[in-house]
Specification:
Order of helices and strands: EHEHEHEHEHEHHHE
Shape: globular
Pfam family, one: adh_short_C2
CATH superfamily: NAD(P)-binding Rossmann-like Domain
Structural class: alpha/beta
GO molecular function: oxidoreductase activity
Strand order of the largest sheet: 3-2-1-4-5-6-7
Number of strands: 7
Protein name: 3-oxoacyl-reductase
CATH class: Alpha Beta
CATH architecture: 3-Layer(aba) Sandwich
Family: Belongs to the short-chain dehydrogenases/reductases (SDR) family.
Number of helices: 8
Keywords: NADP, Oxidoreductase
CATH topology: Rossmann fold
Number of domains: 1
Low-confidence stretches: none
Mean pLDDT: 93
Distance between the termini: 26 Å
Helix content: 40-55%
């Protein structure tokens, strides 16, 4: 089990799904966490789920990552509170209202901008601020998707945004390697999160991709959190510019 004792890690999308599960894993392995999400009330519930008592190793901030000013202020607050930054887990993301429904000819400008504003532009704001503040030898882990590795029909905006995440990850890794900072991405497949259940895909059987998955089940978010923990730890000191799939072999 990878230890994160003494490391300070910032984490976006911490209030639910993969973000909350990852926060629990990182905290259990000794990390101090600066958590952000869009809503303060959801963050308060998440904080209670991570630690049943008040902890100096947890700080929460309501942040809209689509605002570069809010992101910069959050990262500055993190460094001021803990004294430094060692790692970042960028999990926040959206799928849009018409995921799996609208094809490209039906996509509105508003939906395209909303998805890219969070998944790619917002991620860029986070990575930029985190790399400016991070100590040498740190690690950034971004959340892509299997749809960032292959195109899926009726999924153009989301897929394009996640392809962008992988490209940004590779570029950043080439820029900060001399500082011994690693930048990697995780590409989840079908994960048991509110995002997946929000459009009823699992319950209704709309996801025919199970026919392509050698391990034919939904992945639990804690399984993704374990990979985040490894990539943020010193056990992965020579791994960078890589994208790791957690998809049961769907894209293999």
């Amino acid at each position: 089990m990878s230890s994160l004792a003494g490391k300070v890690i910032s984490l976006t999308g911490a209030a639910s799904g993969i973000g909350l599960a990852t926060a629990k894993v990182l905290y259990a392995r000794g990390a101090s966490l600066s958590l952000c999400d869009l809503r303060e009330d959801a963050l308060a519930k998440a904080s209670s789920a991570i630690s049943t008592s008040a902890s100096e190793r947890l700080v929460t901030t309501a942040v809209d990552i689509r605002s570069s000013d809010q992101v910069d202020a959050w990262v500055a607050k993190t460094v001021k509170h803990f004294g430094h930054l060692d790692g970042a887990a960028n999990v926040a993301g959206v799928i849009g209202k018409h995921y799996g429904v609208h094809d490209i000819t039906e996509l509105s400008n508003e939906e395209w901008d909303f998805i890219h504003g969070t998944n790619l532009t917002g991620l860029f704001y986070c990575v930029r601020a985190q790399l400016k503040a991070m100590r040498d030898g740190g690690s950034v882990v971004n959340t892509a998707s299997v749809t960032g590795l292959e195109g899926h029909a009726k999924n153009g905006a989301y897929s394009a945004s996640k392809h962008g995440v992988i490209g940004l990850t590779k570029s950043a890794a080439k820029e900060v390697g001399s500082r011994r900072i690693r930048v990697n991405a995780i590409a989840p497949g079908i994960i048991n999160t509110p995002m997946i259940h929000s459009f009823g895909a699992v319950e209704s059987g709309k996801l025919d991709v199970f026919a392509r998955v050698p391990i034919p089940r939904v992945c639990e978010p804690e399984e993704v959190g374990n990979l985040f923990a490894f990539l943020l730890s010193d056990d992965s000191k020579y791994i960078t510019a890589s994208t790791y799939r957690v998809d049961g072999g769907m894209c293999g």
